[in-house]
Amino acid sequence: MKRLSRSIALLFIANLLVAGPLAASAGAETGSVWIDDLTWPEIRDAIAAGKHTAIIYTGSSEQNGPHMVIGKHNIVAHYAAQRIAEQLGNALVYPVMPFSVTGTISPKTGHMRFPGSVTIPPDAYAAVVRGVAQSALSAGFKVVALMGDHGGGQAELAKVAKELDAQHRKDGAHVLYIGDLYYKSDADLKDWLTKHNLPHDIHAGMWDTSPLLYLEKPGQWVREDKLAEANEANGVVGNPSLATPEIGKAFLDIKVDNAVRQIRALTGAQP
């Protein structure tokens, strides 16, 4: 009996010795590409293991008509940033910056004419982006990719990237502006819509609404009973009634592919 008890005890200790490191390893290897999901030692070790690219993706909090939520750009940014990092295979993503340049407060212009919209002065927006990028460089990332989902702030992203790249190139680091995510993707989507005999629009219409239809649980972010109310007076330039999840998937795929291709082209990385 004593021998059996001793054997059980030894087996229990052996299991602890094996399971302990495995459990710790499982906790460390979350598989997430998001900085927010990792501890600082996990980030340090990920960089050392080859995750040398940091993605800084800005969204926007702005009106999107009576039918679509304020956080449209942030929702798209979160989805696209994760896919870009996963496709690159060597990247981690900083938290999506949820604010951008959307108009002025006094007088109220642009999206600021509607409650819920948030605007950041261009110099303040640039300063925050610069601070996050410098933090990424300080952490040890060798490539910092700046990109934005909203038209406002694109010039600031380009300027910050150019300035920081010039400062840190001597250290073997690069700060890149990934403008293809926004500009080339818009042009490519227009071509796609033309080929499919669909109209172009500008804001909160078909091509803005479609990605959220693709990403959401029904009714989560798009109020389909409000689609018919959309017009320029309430913040919409386009026809969201034509939106479909299929168009949304096509646009999201275009954005992700363009960003990945530009990052690889600028860094000389192979697919």
Overview of the molecule:
With 271 residues, this protein is of the alpha/beta class. The protein has one domain: Rossmann fold (3-Layer(aba) Sandwich). Helices cover 49% and strands 7% of the residues.
> How many structural units, i.e. domains?
1
Largest sheet: 4 strands, parallel
Please, what is the CATH homologous superfamily?
Creatininase
The helix fraction, in percent, is: 40-55%
Beta percentage is: 5-15%
Query: So how many helices?
Result: 8
Low-confidence stretches are 1-28
Average of pLDDT: 91
Major sheet: arrangement of strands: 2-1-3-4
The H-and-E topology, N to C, reads as HHEHEHEHEHHH
Under CATH, the topology can be stated as Rossmann fold
Characteristic key phrases:
271 residues; alpha/beta; Rossmann fold; 4-stranded parallel β-sheet; 8 helices; globular; disordered N terminus
Summarize the helices and strands and which ones pair or pack.
Blueprint: H1 2-28, H2 40-48, E1 53-58, H3 72-88, E2 91-93, H4 122-139, E3 143-148, H5 154-168, E4 174-177, H6 183-195, H7 206-215, H8 245-267
Parallel strand pairs: 1-2, 1-3, 3-4
Short structural summary:
49% of the residues lie in helices and 7% in strands. With 271 residues, the protein is of the alpha/beta class. It has one domain (32-267): Rossmann fold, CATH 3.40.50.
